[in-house]
Specification:
With 196 residues, this protein is an all-alpha fold. The protein has seven helices and no strands. The longest helix is centred in the last third of the chain and has 29 residues. The relative contact order is 0.13.
Length: 196
Amino acid sequence: MHLTRTSTLSAVVVAATSVLSACSSDPEPTQTNSDSSEQSTATADFNEADVAFVTDMIPHHQQAVSMSQMAEERGGPDVAALATRIEGAQQPEIETMTGLLEDWGQETASAMPGMTDMGDMGDMQPEDMEKLMSIRGDDFDTLWLDQMIEHHTGAITMSQTQKDEGINPSAVALADTIIEAQQAEITDMKQMLESN
């Protein structure tokens, strides 16, 4: 009777040890798989509105950068300083948006396509750019500020559409950033126009 009880106790100890060993080796791989799954979901979590927003905003930003570089050369000190600030904000955003398209497996936007496709979004037409190239001084500053206000207004409209229709967290966060920054810059530009 004593032998049977000892054998049973040994069997229970062996079984418990096996269960504990199995459990202790389990959590880390499971956590890794979970993290990997979350990353995959974040990358895949986008819709047509997200793609359209990023694809259209890249050339829109590229044009703002070109306009800013022009103002750095031709504008007065205040306009040139604002242009430097705009370029410094929008160039990194172009890189961020290009990265999003790559993450989503989408074709990246080409550099500054014909701007006639989005004329209602504040994009400057070739004749507008030519006019800016032909003037300097206060005339340049006034026209540049007018055009950039319109350009920023278009970006805010595009960003609001993204917030309403997009689902990708990174793209929606970028839209929030664009709205906040460009609305503040519009306020600054209107004040600059009033003081001209």
